[in-house]
Specification:
Elements: H1 6-9, H2 22-29, E1 38-42, H3 48-59, H4 65-69, H5 72-75, H6 84-90, E2 97-100, H7 104-111, E3 117-122, H8 125-138, H9 148-157, H10 165-175, E4 180-185, H11 186-191, H12 193-203, H13 210-219, H14 222-227, H15 263-276
Parallel strand pairs: 1-2, 1-3, 3-4
Helix pairs in contact: 3-13, 12-13
Bound molecules: adenosine-3'-5'-diphosphate.
The site of adenosine-3'-5'-diphosphate has 21 residues, from α3, α8 and α14.
Length: about 290
C-alpha cells in the first residue's frame, strides 16, 4: 500500500499530543487488521470504557479476573496511541481487542476490506458534551476549556480535540463500508444491560448462558467499574488526570445535560443537531 499522507489527513482534526504522535497516527491509518480483530469505535465520552469492560467480560464468560487485574489500555489499546504497537507485540491474545476514537474517514483505507468486527458505541450528544466538559476539567492533557457556553460552541463547531461528533457518528453508522459492524448505544446498555450484553455476545459469536450474562452485568455496573482501578483511571499519574478535580466514572446517567443547559442553549443545540443530522435516521434517547 502506498504511504498515506497523515499531515494532510489530519489537517482539520487534532488529538492530545502526549499520546498521539505523527508515527502513531501513521501506524493507525495503515494498520494491518486481522479478520479476527475486534475494534471498539466511539467518540469520547460515549461509553468506550464501558464497552471495553463488556467485551472483556463476555470473552471471560462473566469472570472478572482479567478486568480486575489488567488495565483497560493494555486489554484494549487505542490504535492511534503511541504505545499500541508495543502492547500488541507483547500479547498473544486472539482475538485482539482494539479501541479507536478516529472518525471512519481516517480508518477507511485500513479497515474497509477487512472482516474485523467493529462495535460502534454512541450516546446522545448532549450527554456526551456535558461529560466531555467535565472530563476537560480533570484531564490535564486537554486544553483549557473556557466557560460552558464556549465549550458548547466548540462542540457544535467540531473544534474540540477528536473532531466533530456529527462527522464521527455519521461516518461510522451511515457511510462505513465495514462488513461486520454492530451499533450499540450507551442508553441501551443502561436501560437494558442484559439485552445489550446478549446482543454483543452474539455478535462476537460467544453466546453466553443466563448466569454468565448476569455476571457480566454485575461486573460492568457503574458501581463495580467505579471501584475498579484497572478501569477508573486512578492508576494514571495526577499530572495527566487530576482526580481531585473530578472522577472519570463521574455520574453514569442519561439526561445529565438537563442540569447544565439553559433553554436557549437547548434550542441552539437542537437547531444545529437538526441541520447536521437531517440525512441521518438514528433515534436518540435524551432523558430517562
Ligand atoms: P459521565 O461523565 O456522564 O458520568 P468514555 O469511556 O467513552 O470516555 O465515557 C465515559 C462516560 O461513560 C462517563 O460518563 C462514565 O461515567 C460513563 N460510564 C462508564 N462506565 C459506565 C457504566 N458502567 N454505567 C454507566 N455509565 C458509565
Amino acid at each position: 500500500m502506498a504511504r498515506l499522507d497523515v499531515t494532510e489527513m489530519f489537517q482539520d482534526i487534532s488529538f492530545p499530543g502526549h499520546l498521539h504522535t505523527q508515527d502513531s497516527l501513521q501506524q493507525a491509518v495503515e494498520f494491518n487488521f486481522q479478520d479476527t480483530d475486534i475494534l471498539i469505535a466511539s467518540y469520547p465520552k460515549s461509553g468506550t470504557t464501558w464497552m471495553q469492560e463488556i467485551v472483556t467480560l463476555v470473552y471471560s464468560r462473566g469472570d472478572p479476573h482479567l478486568s480486575q487485574t489488567v488495565p483497560n489500555w493494555t486489554r484494549a489499546p487505542w490504535l492511534e496511541q503511541y504505545y499500541c504497537t508495543a502492547v500488541l507485540e507483547a500479547s498473544s491474545a486472539v482475538p485482539r481487542l482494539l479501541t479507536t476514537h478516529l472518525p471512519y474517514r481516517l480508518l477507511r483505507t485500513a479497515i474497509q476490506d477487512s472482516k474485523a468486527k467493529v462495535i460502534y458505541v454512541s450516546r446522545n450528544p448532549k450527554d456526551v458534551m456535558v461529560s466531555f466538559y467535565h472530563f476537560h476539567k480533570m484531564a490535564n492533557f486537554l486544553p483549557d476549556i473556557g466557560s460552558f457556553p464556549e465549550f458548547l460552541d466548540r462542540f457544535l463547531e467540531g473544534k474540540l480535540h477528536f473532531g466533530s461528533w456529527f462527522e464521527h457518528i455519521i461516518g461510522w453508522t451511515q457511510t462505513a463500508a465495514v462488513s461486520n459492524l454492530l451499533h450499540v448505544t450507551y442508553e441501551e446498555m443502561l436501560l437494558d444491560p442484559q439485552g445489550a450484553i446478549k446482543k454483543i455476545s452474539l455478535f462476537l459469536q460467544c453466546p453466553l448462558a443466563e448466569d454468565e450474562i448476569n455476571n457480566c452485568v454485575k461486573h460492568c455496573s457503574f458501581s463495580s467499574m467505579k471501584d475498579n482501578k484497572m478501569i477508573n483511571y486512578t492508576l494514571v499519574p495526577q499530572e495527566i488526570m487530576d482526580h481531585s478535580k473530578g472522577s472519570f466514572m463521574r455520574k453514569g446517567e442519561i439526561g445529565d445535560w438537563k442540569n447544565m443547559f439553559t433553554e436557549e442553549q437547548r434550542r441552539r443545540f437542537d437547531s444545529v443537531f437538526s441541520s447536521k443530522m437531517q440525512q441521518c435516521s438514528l433515534q436518540f434517547v435524551w432523558e430517562k
